[in-house]
Amino acid sequence: MKQKKGALCMFEKGEYVVYGSKGVCRIQEISHVDIPGVDQKRLYYIMHPVQNSGQTLYLPTDSTKAVIRRVMTKEEANRLIHDIPSIEKLEVPNEKQREASYKQALQGCSGRDWISILKTLNQRKEERLAAGKKITALDERYLRVTEQELYGELSVVLGIEKENMHDYIQEQIAAL
């Protein structure tokens, strides 16, 4: 951790982090911000999402509410991919709690949780298609969002285009 102007900062300028539902972001700067209505004594992470670099996000460095973590290392990413076959599907107690279960797992910003969601959603999709039904709008939305989160982080860490990540993961699993 780096000491910065009297405040303890967990992350440093230039570092990549996963910031809640914003996905992978690059910390552009750590400084005070001159925005009306904002405490100018607080330090902020000034970040740009990798997938939307034109957007600027501000997060107080001392925030305890935000879910933010470092991106996984290349070794952690490869281990996560290697572990996919053994990662359990997400347990959903009942249909009424399905969205809450997806949302809670997604908000935890954990690669393992994201894989659990994807395994659950892909199984449900296959079962519905086999029964001649479409995937539900809820499942489709969470499938898309979860893939964006997982593939976004893995693509930054592994240096592989996000669009190629699904195929890359399948190749790695097939080679096990």
From TrEMBL:
- A UniProt-annotated Pfam family: CarD_TRCF_RID
User: Residue ranges of the CarD-like/TRCF RNAP-interacting domain?
Assistant: 10-122
What InterPro entries does the database record attribute to this sequence?
CarD-like/TRCF_RID, CarD-like/TRCF_RID_sf, CarD-like_C
Q: What is this protein called?
A: CarD-like protein
Q: What is the lineage of its organism?
A: Bacteria, Bacillati, Bacillota, Clostridia, Eubacteriales
